[in-house]
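Researcher: Last one for today. Full complex below.
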Amino acid sequence: MTIETAVQRRMPIALDQAFASFDEHWSPRVVTHVNDYDVRVTKVEGEHVWHVHDDTDEFFLVLDGELEIGLREPSGERTVTLPKGSVFTVPRGTEHKPTARPGTRILLFEPTGTLTVGDRHDEVPDHVDVTTGHALKA
Amino acid sequence: MTIETAVQRRMPIALDQAFASFDEHWSPRVVTHVNDYDVRVTKVEGEHVWHVHDDTDEFFLVLDGELEIGLREPSGERTVTLPKGSVFTVPRGTEHKPTARPGTRILLFEPTGTLTVGDRHDEVPDHVDVTTGHALKA
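Model: Here's the assembly. Have a good evening.
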């Protein structure tokens, strides 16, 4: 069954199939909705950009590979490391910058409409997609 | 690092370590919060109970094993199968009943305070924990 058929028939989505449907890094696909939230999956590699979501937390689950997230907190800057199979929530208002090993795949949970680069951000490099997430395609 | 230390220091949580901290089935642990939502993980095996959440969708990700979800929809009853690595959202207002193979582990997103047996349900068997989720303990 194609991804589009699964979506149309409201069938479960196999994440491997979702990941096979695109190549871009830092360019999330919305795999399903939960109330007014998106569940998004993204291939990530190299550096994202320092940014902050003023009004929402952002949830990360590492499905493959390894993700680091730099955090600028009131107490100073630190970096947390998320190996495969770990989860972390960046609190709203906390400036953060994800960096990933090649081959890393993550799942995100955040309100529909949340921009990949937040409400404030450093200059966005070409390899970072400024988006609220893309629909899955076959 | 223990789970409690990771929580206290706001460090990433390894899901394997979270699962190692409890044995019960159908008894979710809250691994992190996202705004007013919980991310919960649960060991599941055998049958849950027909129930419905009137006011919220419910998201399922199968981390290990296989989950079936019976759905009573306006068009009739159907069952969806979620192998490892697949996702599905049960829409609000849809009566549903999960059933799992031994060794199945799932991750759920739902609003904080959501009861495991919903707003309306069949008689709850002893092996199903009626809860809004438990905190992680070391």
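Residues 3-8 of chain A form the longest helix (6 residues). Chain A touches chain B at residues 11-16, 31-35, 37, 39, 56-59, 61, 80-83, 85-89, 92, 107, 109-111 (CB under 8 Å).
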